[in-house]
Amino acid sequence: MLLWIRGCLNPKEMRDKIINSNSEWQKKVIDYLESCHTGDFQTMSKEDVAKKVAENSKLEGYCDPTQTIPEAPPQECKKTHDKSEKNCKACLQSTTWWEKFKDVVDALILKSNVHSCERDNKWNQCKARFPRAIVKESSIDETGAIHLKKHESWINTFTPIVTYLYQCNTDVTSLSSGTAIKGVVLYISDYITKSTLKTHTIFDSIKSVFHK
Question: 150 Cβ partners below 8 Å, 6+ apart?
Answer without folding.
Answer: 39, 40, 132, 133, 134, 135, 157
